[in-house]
Specification:
The protein has helices at 29-33, 46-51, 58-70, 77-84, 91-95, 102-116, 121-133, 137-144, 147-152, 155-161, 163-168, 170-177, 213-216, 218-230, 246-249, 254-269, 281-287, 290-293, 300-310, 314-321, 343-346, 353-359, 383-386, 388-403, 415-427, 437-446, and strands at residues 194-195, 203-207, 233-236, 275-278, 311-313, 335-340, 365-368, 409-412, 434-435. By secondary structure, it is of the alpha/beta class. Strands 1-3-2-4-5 form a five-stranded mixed beta sheet. A four-stranded parallel beta sheet has the order 7-6-8-9, sandwiched between helices. The termini are far apart.
Length: 453
């Protein structure tokens, strides 16, 4: 049964009226017409799950895109809020029986919103702050220098107990609440730019360090280097590497994304590598799209396409080439783990079984599957800052489902998911660890029990 189409907002209902999509790559009408309005996407859409409104579902947003394309409704603050509510998880793409390429539609729509819809002064300020800091690890490092003292002094505890801050500035409160405990290790770069392979070299690989991850959870990169080296990989980490552009790309910041992508192409083009491995799913998804992001650039387009062809998620790569180093049990008794699927891993890159295959190679590990495994945790880049209420509810649901498996630890392969899950676990008084699969493999390589990590 085909559901009736939702009613579109009338053209005169919007404040700040705009003309509509401009001529710079608007959503493709052919892709819009592929949607048959069956509603299969509704059950897997996280924003619809929480908000329950048709316009905050993939199907509803496609109606809006069509209406803006045909001139029935304006592109303005009213319609933009429904595009903003999308987490960009692409679960609907996986679910859709008609093969609707919603990922391409929302990716084309976000830059249109950024160019053509005026935002309030506070939203402009917040977005300027986020996009001026998060993609630039050196800037972010200086900003975060006082954080360890702030956390150890007790001031953070007081701030988080004071509910007035959350009421007055909810988005800044959300940003503060995502800060993990920072150690001084977070403020140093790797001492070595190249780490040799242990034993015979099988591959020469580049490792993307990430911008937020190298500060918020540097132990993941350290573990990844050790796992790759132990399995015959020489690991190259150019000091000139910056941000891949994932955060601005997912929010429609076209020019900044392209500038960051070009800098990344320049950085990696200097290295002779078999592959470039990534241990954060959002970064990996964006790097694999470089050929499309820079497609119209006659100089960088071909180089970007060649770079994208070399990109592998570290789990994807190791599952393909095989582990050669022996692994030890992580506990004396059988150990139950639950793997949390990051959206840009499972939906964006189609990587689902490889992480599980690797974890099952650790002796004594048993994997359990949560309910709604493919539902977004609510992190979604900076969504949990821009849309904190929806993100909070999704985080609560995700943690509830993960805890229901009774697992000893949670494996998660994306920095945003790690931060989101850690926050929600702490809020629920749970001390179950959240570890990247590379950290678990690293412990097994070194023979270190999980409870001593």
């Amino acid at each position: 049964m085909v559901s009736a189409p939702p009613s579109l907002p009338p053209a005169d209902s919007a404040a700040l009226p705009c003309e509509g999509f401009d001529g710079q790559q608007p959503p493709n009408p052919g892709l819009i017409d592929a949607c048959v309005h069956c509603g299969f996407c509704l059950s897997t859409c996280p924003s619809y799950r929480v908000m329950g409104t048709e316009m905050d579902s993939p199907r509803g947003r496609i109606y809006l895109m069509d209406g803006v394309n045909t001139g029935e409704i304006p592109l303005n603050g009213v319609t933009a809020q429904h595009f903003d509510s999308c987490l960009g998880c692409f679960a609907c793409v996986t679910t859709c029986p008609s093969g609707v390429q919603y990922d391409q539609l929302i990716t084309a729509t976000r830059p249109q919103v950024e160019r053509n819809v005026p935002r309030s002064w506070d939203q402009k300020l917040l977005r300027t702050l986020l996009f001026s800091l998060l993609p630039y690890p050196n800037r972010l490092r200086w900003l975060l220098l006082p954080v360890p003292l702030y956390q150890r002094s007790g001031l953070q505890t007081w701030v988080r107990r004071f509910q007035g801050i959350k009421a007055l500035v909810p988005q800044l409160a959300a940003l503060e609440s995502l800060l993990p405990p920072l150690s001084w290790q977070a403020f140093r770069e790797p001492w070595q730019s190249t780490v040799p392979a242990q034993g015979q070299r099988r591959y020469r690989v580049g490792l993307l360090l990430g911008c937020v991850q190298r500060l918020f959870n540097p132990a993941v990169n350290d573990a990844t280097v050790r796992v790759l080296s132990a399995n015959g990989c020489e690991v190259v980490m150019p000091r000139s590497q910056g941000c891949c552009g994932a955060l601005p790309h997912h929010q429609g910041q076209t020019e900044q994304t392209r500038a960051l992508a070009k800098a990344m192409v320049d950085c990696w083009s200097r290295e002779a590598l078999d592959v470039i491995v990534v241990n954060a799913s959002g970064c990996g998804h964006t790097l694999k799209e470089y050929g499309e992001i820079l497609a119209d650039d006659p100089v960088y387009g071909p180089k970007a396409k060649a770079l994208a062809a070399k990109v592998r998620d570290v789990q994807e790569f190791l599952a393909e080439v095989g582990l050669t180093a022996p692994l030890s049990p992580l506990a004396q008794e059988p150990l139950t783990l639950v793997y949390q699927d990051a959206c840009h891993m499972i939906h964006g890159q189609g990587i689902q079984q490889q992480p599980r295959q690797l974890l099952r190679q650790i002796p004594g590990v048993s994997l359990r599957e949560p309910v709604d495994a493919a539902l977004c945790c609510g992190s979604a880049g900076i969504y949990n800052i821009l849309q904190p209420e929806v993100a909070e509810e999704l985080g609560r649901q995700k943690v509830k489902n993960l805890l229901a498996t009774g697992s000893t630890a949670i494996a998660s392969a994306n920095i945003g998911c790690f931060v989101q899950l850690s926050k929600q676990l702490a809020a629920q008084g749970q001390e179950i660890p959240v570890l990247h699969p590379m950290q678990l493999l690293d412990l097994a390589l070194r023979g270190q029990p999980l409870d001593q990590a």
